[in-house]
């Protein structure tokens, strides 16, 4: 009787398993749909609100005339047109930073990995400031190249420092190495800028992180980098899932562990550096969004990465809109808003006892 009962229970369990996958797929499909709608709504909100709120009709008029290459006579529609570039940049930058953070957390199996916390943002910023102050760099392409070099060198340095000592690389050691590196590099940035008034005036708001400097020419420089790095990240998702099981298991599944880590790390750093070159070092987006998305979608990176990109777009666009509304007639930089929101998240993560790996 026991054998029959066990067999029946096993059969019942096996019968239930096939229905679980479609249910999970439907749930994830709903989540993706909601995320896409949230991005669309956030874009409309960004175009509608600022120092001068506008109505739905003016939003439609401003967008339609922008598509036709016309300049509206209505001041509200004109305000909408002026907000289009910064809204596009906020969407792109938020998606790139969140995707970068999710990649870094997956590669290091470290819940505290984030471009800001690990010092990658600051390294990119320092390289750009050095280029402007000493090399006379003034083009968007030059900023991008310097930011990529600075970000890659900083990421490599932080990883080496975080690996020193017993136990190898741990979340706490990486976070401490990143915090120390960020402090040191930030001091160097200040030391370069303070005696140089012209450079300081140009980049004092850029250092905080904002999307107000958006224009189509500079975005055209970084968009190819964001697209290539984003595609690499999404293609690498399955291999990164295998890495989460451990290096030995990943090798057994046919994954080239070293190669996938290097390629994914370069993609993550490129996403962060491209955004930093144009918008400055915006922190905490790569930390907050993947953690929030993971609670909804689970750890499967095939879903986590694209959903993080959508969530990052929503977060940074909302942060920019909030900054424009509460700072009217001026604005509060988006980097300040994300830091204000992200600090409690960092404290909550640090208080968790089980944080050795994702």
From TrEMBL:
Task: Specify the protein name.
Answer: Iron complex transport system permease protein
Q: Is Nucleotide-binding tagged as a keyword?
A: no
Main localisation: membrane
Listed under GO biological process in this entry are: siderophore-iron import into cell
Chain intervals for the UniProt region annotation (Disordered): 1-22
Q: Which residues cross the membrane?
A: 30-49, 88-107, 119-137, 144-162, 174-194, 221-245, 265-289, 301-326, 332-350
InterPro entries, alphabetized: ABC_BtuC-like, ABC_transptr_permease_BtuC
Which CDD domains does the UniProt record give?
A: TM_ABC_iron-siderophores_like
